[in-house]
Amino acid sequence: MESGKVPNDVLNKIVLSKINKFREEIILRPGIGEDCAAIDFGEYACVLSTDPITAAVNDIGKLSVHISCNDIASSGVEPLGLMVTILCPVGTSEAELENVMEQICVTAAELNVEIVGGHTEVTPAVNQIIISTTCIGKSQKNKIVSSTGAKPGDSIIMTKSAGMEGAAIIATDFAHKLNNIISHEDLCYAREFVKSLSVVKEGVLSGKFGATSMHDITEGGVLGAVWEISEASGVGVVINKDNISVDPVTKSICNALDINVLRLISSGSMLITCPNGEELVKILESNNIKATIIGTVTANKNEKLLISKKEGTVQEIEPPSSDELYKLYVTANHEHSL
Known about the structure:
Blueprint: H1 8-15, E1 26-28, E2 37-41, E3 44-53, H2 60-73, E4 79-88, H3 94-110, E5 114-122, E6 130-140, E7 155-159, H4 164-173, H5 184-191, H6 200-209, E8 213-216, H7 221-233, E9 236-240, H8 248-256, E10 270-274, H9 277-286, E11 291-298, E12 304-308, E13 313-316, H10 326-337
Parallel strand pairs: 4-5, 9-12
Antiparallel strand pairs: 1-2, 2-3, 3-6, 4-6, 7-10, 7-11, 8-10, 9-11, 12-13
GO biological process, one term: protein maturation
Pfam families: AIRS, AIRS_C
Protein name: AIR synthase family protein
């Protein structure tokens, strides 16, 4: 298998198919495109999500907080607690561990999320620091938004712009590949995207508005998230490629490295489906969150189309495969081995 998330067909066959479902307290279970689990605690539900950081070297403390908190936000829920596991390779210095922990604590505090536990270990099983976080939220049971609720006729909204996380990681970890192509100012600008990777605000606002489904755009990029929403909800999607926002600097970075920005990890952007999409866009923008309607949900579950009038193209949206970011790590590992 390639680097990145296990392909969805393999995930279904080997992982999801083996999970037994027998506790009545579990009200939101694992599935393709589903970011969270939820457990019934009477009037309220405990909402949980867990994720590792593996495709970055720098800023991993910040990223580890955002990815799990964003998953909780995709259920329309405000995150409140975070459990953190840090695995350090042998030889890690105290200063390196302290830097990571400082990033985690500062980022969590900015989101009003408390660190409630975890585990820290030095082990020869890893060759770089690996962080896995589990985020916890609380919600009234009837207020939880899942990835399975998109309805035909819903608008498909994307917040912010595609590829921000990927561009930030590339500008930080692979600047040497871009020094003679992208200006120093633009690289610094792209690194600043790491400050805009939270989707907690739009997740909570959209949940209150009545979003039918949400999915934060992580590995696999915009098209991967669209495909997963479609599969999870059993609906079709028609996406207008011309409406997908991409920052010019992100576009320049991706063009320079032959990366498909629509398949690039994009934390900081949320995919939202809802009726009355124009009204939600107004609400989000009144809260200083850029939002764009990029498509429509259809009744034909086999219809997954990417249309561009500018390019005169109609393409089938394929299932997500290895994220575009991993191309750079594969190349880097190959160069290192030579």
